[in-house]
Amino acid sequence: MVVLFLCAFLSAPGPSSTGTATFVIDGNRMYAELGFVRPDGSIHRALAFVDMGSASMMVRESLYRELQLDRNKPLLFRVGELPVEVPSAGVVREPRAPSSLGSDLKVEAMLPAGILQRYQVLIDYRKRILTLAQPGTIKPEGVSVPFHINAQTGLLAVDASIDGSPYRITIDNGSAYSWFRPSTAAGTRRRMKVR
Fold first, then answer.
1. How far apart are alpha carbons 81 and 44 in whole angstroms?
2. What is the 3-state secondary structure (H, E, C) of 65-131?
């Protein structure tokens, strides 16, 4: 009996290196379903706005209190089976009720680039699946593109060419649309009219 227990103990799986969560698209924005770990170990399922343009994890007031984050505890949540821990200093209490950016979704948190940059991130818009993995876990597919990263926020930018002119374009799925500075758009329009 001791041998069986020892074998079972040795073969017990450790923390997962990959996790997958479903998400919904609403107003052209992504909301992932995360499992927030309560102090007693039970899970509170909630939607989190996925924003590649923010640095800090934000949690709405009611969830913040439920998770007892006001006691300087780290925030623990799961993306599928992948556990994620955020130190209390990296969590911002948002003093509002759960809401959305334009619909009736009950959104209780915001998952920022500041967290995502610690992982490999795979977004499958067709299947509505967000996957996070420890670095080196997922073999990249497709065409690789060099990018620039703001180390403080995790925000990405790529170099692009529009009508022969170079531009640095930010990738932010948290924005519901693509936009350019007025001066950039005006310059492009002028060049196109000259032709």
1. 14
2. HHCCHHHCCCEEEEECCEEEEECHHHEEEECCCCECCCCCCCEEEEEEHHHHCCCEEEEECCCCEEE
- 169 is a domain residue: yes
Write out the residue range of the structural domain in which residue 69 sits: 19-133
Residues in the chain: 195
Among candidate residues 105, 133, 161, the one where a domain is terminated: 133
- Same domain? 23 vs 84: yes
Do 104 and 182 reside in the same domain of the chain? no
Same-domain check for residues 127 and 171: no
161 within a domain of the structure (yes/no): yes
Q: What tokens does 25 get?
A: 């698209």
Least Cα distance to 175 among 57, 58, 25, 53 occurs for 53
pLDDT tens for each residue of 111-122: 998 899 899 999
What is residue 140's DSSP assignment? Answer: P
Angle in degrees, CA 151, 22, 47, rounded to 5:
70
| pLDDT tens digits along 32-59 | 999 999 999 999 999 999 988 788 899 9
Structure tokens at 165: 């002119």
